[in-house]
Automatic annotation (TrEMBL):
Originating species: Nocardiopsis terrae
Pfam families, sorted: OHCU_decarbox
InterPro entries linked to this entry: OHCU_decarboxylase (IPR018020), OHCU_decarboxylase_sf (IPR036778)
Protein name: 2-oxo-4-hydroxy-4-carboxy-5-ureidoimidazoline decarboxylase
Residue intervals of the Oxo-4-hydroxy-4-carboxy-5-ureidoimidazoline decarboxylase domain: 21-177
Biased composition (Basic and acidic residues): 77-93
EC number annotated for this UniProt entry: 4.1.1.97
Length: 184
C-alpha cells in the first residue's frame, strides 16, 4: 500500500468546498441559485471559483449579496414561500425552507396558535401594503419573534422595506451557502 503524503499546510481539508470547486460552471450556478435566486449574485460568486477556502467564499458571497436591488428582491421572493406555509417539493431548497421555518410552528399550545393566526392576518396586511410576501431570516425564531418583526416592519416606507428585505435575503443566502458546503 502506498504511503500518503502528510498534509503540512496546517489546514483541514474542506470536502464541501472541494465539491463546489469541482462543479462545472453551470452546475455551480444551479447550486448557488438555491441559496439566492439573483442572477447577478449567482454569476459573480460562480465567476470567482475555485475558492481557496471557505472563509473567502463566504465573504465574497456576502459582499456580492449587499445592495440587492428592488428588481432582484422581486425575483428572489418568487422562490420563497410565505412564513407558515410549508415549501412543497422534495428538492434541497424546499427542505431548507421547511427547516428554516420549523420554529414558527413548533409551539402548538393555544397561545402560540393565536399568535400564528394574528401573524397570518398581519402578513396579509403586509402584502397589501408592499405588494410582496413578508420575508425574514426565520431560522430559529419563534412565531412571537416573527410577529413582532412583521408588525415593526409595517411602519416602513417602500424603499426602507426593500432594503430590509435585501438584508434578510443576504442573511438567508449566507445560511444556505453554509448548508450547501455542509451537504458534501
Amino acid at each position: 500500500m502506498p504511503e500518503s503524503t502528510p498534509d503540512t499546510s496546517g489546514s483541514t481539508p474542506d470536502p464541501g468546498l472541494a465539491r463546489l470547486n469541482a462543479l462545472s460552471r453551470e452546475e455551480l450556478r444551479t447550486e448557488l441559485a438555491q441559496c439566492l435566486n439573483v442572477d447577478r449574485w449567482v454569476e459573480a460568486v460562480a465567476s470567482e471559483a475555485p475558492y481557496a477556502d471557505r472563509g473567502t467564499l463566504l465573504a465574497r458571497a456576502d459582499g456580492h449579496a449587499r445592495g440587492i436591488t428592488a428588481e432582484e428582491v422581486a425575483t428572489a421572493l418568487d422562490r420563497h414561500p410565505r412564513i407558515g406555509e410549508k415549501a412543497e417539493g422534495r428538492d434541497t431548497e424546499s427542505a431548507w425552507s421547511r427547516g428554516e421555518q420549523s420554529a414558527f410552528a413548533a409551539d402548538t399550545d393555544d397561545a402560540s396558535a393565536r399568535v400564528q393566526r394574528i401573524f397570518t392576518f398581519a402578513q396579509g396586511e403586509y402584502e397589501g401594503r408592499f405588494g410582496q410576501i413578508y420575508l425574514v431570516c426565520a431560522s430559529g425564531r419563534s412565531s412571537r419573534e416573527l410577529l413582532a418583526d412583521l408588525v415593526d416592519r409595517l411602519d416602513n416606507d417602500r424603499e426602507t422595506e426593500l432594503s430590509v428585505v435585501g438584508e434578510e435575503l443576504r442573511k438567508i443566502s449566507g445560511l444556505r451557502l453554509v448548508k450547501l458546503l455542509e451537504a458534501a
